[in-house]
């Protein structure tokens, strides 16, 4: 009994030390930024397209315009107004060394909103990124700073909330700060995958293993692998008490009781968040919409503060013995899900060979075809890739080059690479000024105004797919939601923007000769009536000038009554 009590005491000490290590952030210093109970639609570290989710998405009961309050005393140090991304956002710097961020807002508190509006009219620019000194807009804990919304890159009403280290600007997992969000639900595991690591996780790719629920855990049939060097990945979610699919906070991989690999998602900087693509099976994510996280480190993945076991996670099977594999998943509250299985090296097989076009981590590479050239930096890839690049006839009537095929959109690239393409015919100076590089990623497209470098057009990209040079002589346009000269009784004017190629990259609206503040909402332009256009002020003339990616501009005039 004495020895048992001693052992129990040691276990309690270890548990306490673990909690202290995890919770070396101020507890209960920050309050809930909403006046309703905190319910999560997404947590810190959840998998997103090309980035980790960097904060908490707090539910607003599918409503907009709920009061958003300061999580602690401090001052408004920055605001952003942008079309995508955060939309309308407030940054509050606190005296304890942290900054909180509140995003997708509809409006700011009155004094701040007035300041921003004045700045927009002074700059004649809707998008803003303004920093403030400590004495300009001080706030107290619980003070209303904005109303919640659905602006920017938001897909539905909610509040995005972040906590950052003020000095380093690293985003820290807000759940480490002691917010009261009840959670007794363990992470669930729905898939297990193994990879032949003699060459790359991309070739030949994932081998799926069916997962079975057994009692309080999970298992699989014995895994027969055909390579002596393997790694694992897991498909799992944490539903917490809210039922949303949240990301995994902590994972451990053990073989025969020995820790092989582990990760925790405590903090990430925006400079490093794209390394998410080296932490997941990117092919499965893009092609199959599945979030599968590696339990190993890819050679080109350099995310700080993530991998903590001191091992790459690659398992070397030197015999045909059966080995026990354990995968343990935990949330911040310690709720634990576990998968136990066995693995055996069954037979050897041919591995993928290097080619003269293999792109490697830590090595730059230039690859060419007859009319195109691609230049990768040493940070381009996370894992080995036998790069395939080719040309084929373009199918677009406005194309002036072959379509260049760059591998596949299912393989990630970490940083910007340079691509040069030679057009199929000589162009006049005017035509050259209207050439656009049109990229097709399969699920979406992107257009870039390339630079001329000799007889080739050059651009920078960070995704793979197919690209073609397009001569865009079309004009962008906007269409009004009212008839000419109509009396407007609604609270706002709305214009819809369209382009043939690319995007509307700039716009200017003038009401009776003076700049008017139109907000950019996705592809729409919205002006909410204010003192610049009062009721009963007669017939107004609205002049709108838009410019597309190619640089073509179009000026349109509309009239209305107010």
Query: How many domains make up the coordinates?
Result: 4
Could you say which overall geometry the principal axes of the C-alpha atoms support? flat
Beta-strand share of residues: 35-45%
Structural class: mainly beta
Q: Give the fraction of residues assigned to helices.
A: under 10%
Radius of gyration of CA atoms, rounded to a whole number: 27 Å
Low-confidence stretches: 1-22
Q: What is the mean predicted local confidence, pLDDT?
A: 93
Ends: how far apart? 86 Å
Keywords: Signal
Signal peptide: 1-21
Protein name: M23 family metallopeptidase
Domain M23ase beta-sheet core: 52-109, 133-167
Explained architecture:
With 562 residues, the protein is mainly beta. It contains four helices and 47 strands. It has four domains: 40-177, Distorted Sandwich (Glucose Permease (Domain IIA)), CATH 2.70.70.10; 188-345, no CATH class; 358-471, Chondroitinase Ac, Chain A, domain 3; 477-561, Immunoglobulin-like. It is flat. Mean pLDDT is 93; it is low at 1-22. A hairpin with a 2-residue loop joins β16 and β17 (217-219). The strands form nine sheets. Strands 1, 4, 5, 6, 7, 8, 9, 10, 11, 12, 13 and 22 form a twelve-stranded antiparallel sheet that branches. Strands 16, 17, 18, 20, 21, 25 and 26 form a seven-stranded mixed sheet that branches. InterPro entries: Cell_wall_metabolism_enzyme, Dup_hybrid_motif, M23ase_b-sheet_dom. It comes from Chryseobacterium endalhagicum.
